[in-house]
Amino acid sequence: MLALYLYSFFLFGRSGQRLLGALAVALAGLDLAHDYLGVGVKALFLLPAVSALYWRSKIACAYGAYYLVEGALKELGTLAAQPYLEWAWALLPLTAGISRKALVKAVIASALTLTAVLASPYYMGMIFVFGLGLSQVLLLPLAVFAALSSKSKYSLYALLVGPSVQLSVHYLILSAAGYVDRRKQ
Predict the structure, then answer these.
(1) TM spans, by residue (predicted)?
(2) What is the pLDDT of residues 48-64, one digit of tens each?
(3) CA 74 to chain centroid
């Protein structure tokens, strides 16, 4: 796990954003100290917001804000908002805009996903959909459509990890996604 953090922080430091890299290291250190030493603060849910400051794109800020809210609600133990958060996660890719060239692929992929979910509720529902952290099975085809029709490829990486997987995994994948997305622009 530490190697994953270091890779993400390396992306910050490589671009000259040493202050954000230091902030990310401090937040991760406080979280690890809380988990292993009992001293410190649970602050890992702040890392995607730090990542959003680094990438400075609308989609990165949207995901940073989402994971910040999701992490804070998880720390407070508020589970009543989970269905609304899942809807927000599924629709977040649309904040980058819709690519008209990708609409046909997005419709086909979401139709195939919907067919697979409806045809095999056990395997797709229990293993894949709930494995992503979704409690609403039919949100997966919507999320696939939104991610594939988005102008930014950033949302594809968030689709891989789902709306409520461990935030360190989100942070790593979204950092790498932002790096890849930034290099393509």
Answers:
(1) 36-55, 126-149, 156-180
(2) 788 777 777 888 888 88
(3) 15
Strand, helix or coil for residue 147: helix
| Residue matched to tokens 């490829």 | 153
Which one, of 58, 41, 57, 46, lies nearest residue 20 by Cα? 46
Task: Give the closest residue to 45 by CA, choosing from 171, 181, 178, 172.
Answer: 171
C-alpha distances out from residue 43 to 28, 46, 103, Å: 7, 6, 38
Length of the chain: 185
Q: What is the pLDDT of residues 6-34, one digit of tens each?
A: 666 666 666 677 787 778 778 878 877 88
- Alpha carbon distance 139, 134 (integer Å): 8
Rounded to whole angstroms, how far apart are CA atoms 82 and 149?
25
